[in-house]
């Protein structure tokens, strides 16, 4: 059992089906009250053939979710899904949808995260053309934004209801009307005043990415690849621009690629690995930080809690860019490398790691 659950109150979101008899819901809440549980919210979601009741309940320390399910079953009900909830997220559906739309309209990079929050989904990803698998279980929701962008939301703890699917479809109409797309380019201003465009990499960027590597110094390439790479083999280009387990983000000034960052899924769903390459003349101009912020939004929407980078002990460039981002950062030595952890989940505290003065001092020498 999670030790956190055993030592402090926990808030749960339950979706249940009850017999259509007067007083059934009241008896369930009475049983929960007998366990000193506090019901914080109740909503009714229409579904084919009836309704699903959603209850948000705060439980005392030591209460296991199985005991809540037992109480529901004792009254003839069935638990459709249960997941942890945060009290700060418990707002009415209309408010949540409006906030999500506002966040996406302010920053298209936040679209996927806004959809995840609105649906209570485990993850939301941008799907490639023809990469949307069929799903009959109701745990998959697909949102089309215009003709070029498709978002796929997954939720394991409970199937999506028709009401939720209709809500997210309307959300998509709002964003499409505003010409918003999750994968659309975004503009930032570098420290030197130049305008930089951030956008996903495509196979058509192969020559520009090869030119980026040709302009980078041997030291910059070694810091990125940890090997004596001097020229980029052409066979690497496709994998760099379309990694099978992740995404590539490019930074452009005009038509010239001046930076490249990658976000790669690992075997740990909570983490994704991040890497960064910025042309020598554009370093210390905020380009790396802008790419880290953008990938942080993408990682959060896909359900990751932190991004991890592995740096050489004498290399300070990535750590410096990460500390300038909007996310908390922790650093520690591991296997003769610097492990830089960037926390992207706002509800999660940074790694329980103390970046000692000695460690930080060593990286800055």
From TrEMBL:
The keyword Acyltransferase applies. It holds the Pfam family Acetyltransf_1. Keywords: Acyltransferase, Transferase. InterPro entries: ACT-like_dom_sf (IPR045865), ACT_dom (IPR002912), Acyl_CoA_acyltransferase (IPR016181), Bact_Acetyltransf (IPR050832), GNAT_dom (IPR000182). The keyword Chloroplast does not apply. Residues 13-90 form the ACT domain. PROSITE patterns: ACT (PS51671), GNAT (PS51186). Residues 196-345 form the N-acetyltransferase domain. It comes from the Bacteria. One of its GO terms (molecular function) is acyltransferase activity, transferring groups other than amino-acyl groups. PANTHER family: AMINOALKYLPHOSPHONATE N-ACETYLTRANSFERASE-RELATED-RELATED. This is N-acetylglutamate synthase, GNAT family.
């Amino acid at each position: 059992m999670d030790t956190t659950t055993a030592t402090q109150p926990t808030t749960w979101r339950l979706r249940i089906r009850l017999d259509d008899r007067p007083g059934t819901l009241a008896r369930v809440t009475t049983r929960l009250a007998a366990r000193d549980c506090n019901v914080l919210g109740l909503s009714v979601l229409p579904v084919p053939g009836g309704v699903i009741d959603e209850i948000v309940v705060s439980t005392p320390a030591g209460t296991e979710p199985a005991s809540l399910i037992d109480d529901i079953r004792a009254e003839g009900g069935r638990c459709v899904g249960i997941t942890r909830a945060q009290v700060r997220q418990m707002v009415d559906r209309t408010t949540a949808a409006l906030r999500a739309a506002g966040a996406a309209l302010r920053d298209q990079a936040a679209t996927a995260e806004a959809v995840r929050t609105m649906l209570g989904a485990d993850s939301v990803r941008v799907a490639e053309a023809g990469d949307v698998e069929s799903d009959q279980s109701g745990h998959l929701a697909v949102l089309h934004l215009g003709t070029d962008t498709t978002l796929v939301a997954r939720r394991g703890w409970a199937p999506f209801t028709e009401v939720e699917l209709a809500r997210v479809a309307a959300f998509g109409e709002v964003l499409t009307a505003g010409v918003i797309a999750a994968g659309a380019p975004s503009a930032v201003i570098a420290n030197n005043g130049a305008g930089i465009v951030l956008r996903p990499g495509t196979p058509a960027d192969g020559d520009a990415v090869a030119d980026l590597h040709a302009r980078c110094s041997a030291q910059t390439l070694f810091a990125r690849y940890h090997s004596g790479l001097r020229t980029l083999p052409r066979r690497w280009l496709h994998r760099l621009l379309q990694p099978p387990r992740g995404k590539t983000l490019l930074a452009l000034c005009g038509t010239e690629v001046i930076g490249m960052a990658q976000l790669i899924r690992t075997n740990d769903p909570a983490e994704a690995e991040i890497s960064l390459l910025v042309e020598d003349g554009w370093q210390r101009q905020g380009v790396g930080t802008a790419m880290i912020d953008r990938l942080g939004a993408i990682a959060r929407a896909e359900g990751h809690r932190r991004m991890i980078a592995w740096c050489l002990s004498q290399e300070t460039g990535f750590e410096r860019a990460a500390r300038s981002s909007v996310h908390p950062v922790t650093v520690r030595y591991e296997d003769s490398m610097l492990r830089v952890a960037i926390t992207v989940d706002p509800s999660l505290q940074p790694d329980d790691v103390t970046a000692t003065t000695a460690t930080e001092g060593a990286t800055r020498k």
